[in-house]
Amino acid sequence: MNRSHGPRLPALLCAVSLLAGCQLVPVKREPPPLPFTGTKWNLVTERRPVGEAPYLEFGDGAVTGSSGCNRIMGRYQQDAVGAGAIVFSSIATTKRLCDDVSMVVEDRILSVLRTSTNVRVTGDALRIDGSAGALDFKAAPR
Looking at domain 40-139, which CATH architecture does it have? Predict the structure, then answer.
């Protein structure tokens, strides 16, 4: 049985020649997210406190860190499904009095943590959202 390739063969040859002239552009892939727990997350802020950079660390249901002035400690609970829901409780700080900028940053951190509803890690970035706003963090260099 002799089959004719008909008009499909020229179309196929044309497509192959077009593809041969194309250059493949590498796709930039997002790196896998860093682990939520066990990573030191530095706060991204426009108003940098004078002292230590604000940060949070998570592990075994506990959160610890620094507001740049006072130590932060508390508990958190995440959803087991992985939808990003989070609730903080028993958030407390030490009671040092610091410069105005440091105290504003601390008040912002505490407000968001106490009203938080969602957490998301993308690559080396962490975002915590709550009714009082959002906090953005970058992973500290390892």
Answer: Beta Barrel (2.40)
